[in-house]
Amino acid sequence: MHLRQGTFSHLPDLSDTEIGAQIRYALLNNWPVSIEYTDDPHPRNVYWEMWGLPLFDLDEPDGVLAEVNACRSTFPHHYIRVNAYDASYGRQTTALSFLVQRPADEPGFLVVRTETEDRRQHYGLRSYATDVPAGARYRD
């Protein structure tokens, strides 16, 4: 199972050249870029850990790619994404967000059904990754 989050989620994984091209596009639009990582990819988990500070005032994607590679080497078994923010509306808005790394083995999600009053059914998702404590997930 492949996690489908962010822009380009239904395309094959991006190469470093393609990632650099997307970062260049963001920088040409004056969008600051940040890098985030997690080992809990639940769709409602929107607050991933931030890798360093957002990268402002860059002209070339090389600095961002160096930080992406540093994050990859520190967290080789985590999901890593790049976000670009557009402040032209007077507030921070995510203009672009895409995965640049995923674990080799993605365990997927369990659909949890709960019966409530009047026999109504409620459904939710639980990540199989959370069966293992944080920090120990996705180890080889």
UniProtKB/TrEMBL annotation:
Biological process (GO) annotations held by this record are: reductive pentose-phosphate cycle
Q: How does it assemble?
A: Heterohexadecamer of 8 large and 8 small subunits.
State the similarity comment.
Belongs to the RuBisCO small chain family.
Query: Which PANTHER family does the record cross-reference, listed alphabetically?
Result: RIBULOSE BISPHOSPHATE CARBOXYLASE SMALL CHAIN 1, CHLOROPLASTIC, RIBULOSE BISPHOSPHATE CARBOXYLASE SMALL SUBUNIT
**Purpose:** RuBisCO catalyzes two reactions: the carboxylation of D-ribulose 1,5-bisphosphate, the primary event in carbon dioxide fixation, as well as the oxidative fragmentation of the pentose substrate. Both reactions occur simultaneously and in competition at the same active site. Although the small subunit is not catalytic it is essential for maximal activity.
Miscellaneous notes for this chain? The basic functional RuBisCO is composed of a large chain homodimer in a 'head-to-tail' conformation. In form I RuBisCO this homodimer is arranged in a barrel-like tetramer with the small subunits forming a tetrameric 'cap' on each end of the 'barrel'.
What is the designated name of this protein?
Answer: Ribulose bisphosphate carboxylase small subunit
The protein's gene is named cbxSC
